[in-house]
Design goal:
Strand content: over 45%
Helix content: under 10%
Order of helices and strands: EEEEEEEEEEE
Largest sheet: 7 strands, mixed
Number of helices: 0
Shape: globular
Length: 123
């Protein structure tokens, strides 16, 4: 049974917006570091946005000012609002949870992963 479930991926035009959601019935989105990562075939998984247990967020330089990570503690759901999407944002997006309260935005610090949701941005 999946413990992290992503949704919201879709195909959009350049400049469009999407909102990804990650629901979990196992982890607490406010207790540990959680993040969004993305991966394209042939490349390493890269960190996009992360949020620590205290609410502090950080972003990859490539998405700063366009993406916003947030969480709904009552619904135990993590979000990624993506605006001004570009073709280079095309990737499989993964939600991840760490065992640390705060962590670098690196895949190696996250031990729990969802199955991913595909985002495709066309020019």
């Amino acid at each position: 049974q999946a413990q992290l479930v992503e949704s919201g991926g879709d195909s959009v035009q350049s400049g469009g917006s999407l909102r990804l959601a990650c629901t979990t019935s196992v982890y607490s989105v406010s207790q540990y570091f959680m993040g969004w990562f993305r991966q394209v075939p042939g490349k390493d998984r890269e960190g996009v946005a992360g949020i620590a247990n205290d609410g502090t967020s950080n972003y990859a330089d490539s998405v700063k000012g366009r993406f916003t990570i947030s969480r709904d503690i009552a619904k135990n759901t993590l979000f990624l609002q993506m605006n001004s999407l570009k073709p280079e944002d095309t990737a499989m997006y993964y939600c991840a949870a760490s065992s640390f309260k705060t962590a670098p935005m690196k895949a190696s610090f996250c031990g729990h992963w969802g199955q991913g949701t595909q985002v495709t941005v066309s020019s």
